[in-house]
């Protein structure tokens, strides 16, 4: 399976048309059709449903699209890393980030680093800690900004000096909106929207104590702004961090007793990294050295 053919396949999947994909790739339509059929023969599956005017991916086609994106993305990153070795420090540093106020600290360090190395760019991928760790394992990310609790076995990491404060996000017309802080008893009977990570669920249910067993979980989320949207439309109250960008129609109320979460910036232990990523890690160590 050639990288070139995977790029052909991704173009056809994106355009939904062999004709448009061939134009995009600057090759002839018969050439592209032949390459796609050979790829299907090689894999022994049908990748496209060819009925109608638009190409549609089969279930096998959708699986290959996910894998092809990872393979092509990793190949492109590798090429950029080796290109950066031939001149001034350059290339791309790929960072996965959970939704956390520590991203502000990291952004400050990115800005400082780029003042000295303007040819280095940064790619930020927002996701949960579990998703980020999976991409770190596959080599698709250099670093991960992870909200605790999170396992760090097999990783080197820097603990950042800023913590996130948990609270309940409610509508302004909620009876809870008048409170300065909210405890487990006051959330009893309130539909809750909580993070979908198992470790986070366990921590929040432990905080709820005796009320955890009867808590009504209305929905789970992985992005806080999506949780805020559900709160806005009456799904329930979200247990989340206090972050900037929350709609003005909502109110964030800190939990009582207080619940805080730390963050770590992690990378694979013993893994070779690009020159740009290595230089950035060294600057981070200096900046956050205890």
Percent of residues in beta strands?
15-25%
Total count of domains: 3
Class computed from helices, strands and strand pairing: alpha/beta
Shape: globular
> What's the helix-strand series?
HHHEEHEHEHEEEHEHEHEEEEH
Question: How would the blueprint of this fold be written?
Answer:
Layout: H1 3-15, H2 18-25, H3 29-43, E1 48-49, E2 56-57, H4 59-83, E3 91-97, H5 102-116, E4 120-126, H6 129-137, E5 143-147, E6 155-159, E7 164-171, H7 184-187, E8 192-195, H8 198-208, E9 217-221, H9 224-232, E10 237-241, E11 250-254, E12 260-261, E13 263-268, H10 275-287
Parallel strand pairs: 3-4, 3-5, 8-9, 8-10
Antiparallel strand pairs: 1-2, 5-13, 6-13, 7-10, 7-11, 7-12
Helix pairs in contact: 1-2, 1-4, 2-3
Give an overview of the whole structure.
There is one protein chain. With 290 residues, the protein is of the alpha/beta class. It has ten helices and 13 strands. The protein has helices at residues 3-15, 18-25, 29-43, 59-83, 102-116, 129-137, 184-187, 198-208, 224-232, 275-287; strands at 48-49, 56-57, 91-97, 120-126, 143-147, 155-159, 164-171, 192-195, 217-221, 237-241, 250-254, 260-261, 263-268. Strands 7, 8, 9, 10, 11 and 12 form a six-stranded mixed beta sheet that branches. Strands 4-3-5-13-6 form a five-stranded mixed beta sheet, with helices on both faces. Helix 1 crosses helix 2 (18-25), helix 1 (3-15) crosses helix 4 and helix 2 packs across helix 3 (29-43). It is globular and about 70 Å long.
């Amino acid at each position: 399976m050639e990288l070139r053919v995977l790029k052909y396949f991704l173009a056809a999947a994106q355009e939904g048309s062999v004709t448009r994909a061939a134009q995009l790739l600057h090759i002839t339509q018969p050439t592209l059709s032949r390459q796609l059929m050979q790829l299907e023969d090689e894999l022994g599956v049908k990748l496209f449903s060819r009925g109608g005017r638009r190409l549609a991916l089969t279930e096998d086609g959708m699986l290959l699209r996910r894998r092809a994106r990872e393979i092509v993305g990793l190949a492109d990153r590798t090429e950029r890393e080796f290109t950066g070795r031939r001149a001034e420090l350059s290339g791309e540093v790929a960072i996965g980030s959970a939704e956390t106020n520590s991203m502000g600290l990291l952004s400050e360090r990115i800005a400082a680093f780029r003042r000295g190395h303007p040819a280095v760019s940064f790619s930020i991928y927002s996701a949960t800690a579990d998703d980020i760790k999976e991409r770190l394992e596959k080599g698709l990310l250099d670093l991960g900004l992870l909200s605790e609790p999170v396992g760090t076995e097999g990783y080197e990491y820097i603990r950042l000096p800023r913590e996130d404060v948990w609270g309940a996000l409610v509508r302004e017309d909620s009876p809870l909106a008048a409170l300065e802080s909210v405890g487990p008893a006051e959330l009893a009977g309130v539909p809750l929207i909580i993070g979908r990570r198992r470790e986070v669920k366990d921590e929040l249910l432990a905080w709820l104590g005796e009320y955890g067993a009867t808590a009504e979980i209305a929905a789970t989320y992985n992005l806080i702004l999506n949780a805020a949207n559900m709160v806005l439309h009456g799904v329930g109250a979200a247990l989340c961090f206090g972050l900037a960008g929350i709609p003005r129609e909502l109110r964030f109320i800190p939990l009582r007793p207080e619940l805080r979460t730390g963050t770590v910036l992690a990378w694979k232990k013993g893994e070779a990294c690009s020159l740009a990523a290595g230089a950035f890690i060294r600057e981070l160590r200096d900046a956050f050295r205890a």
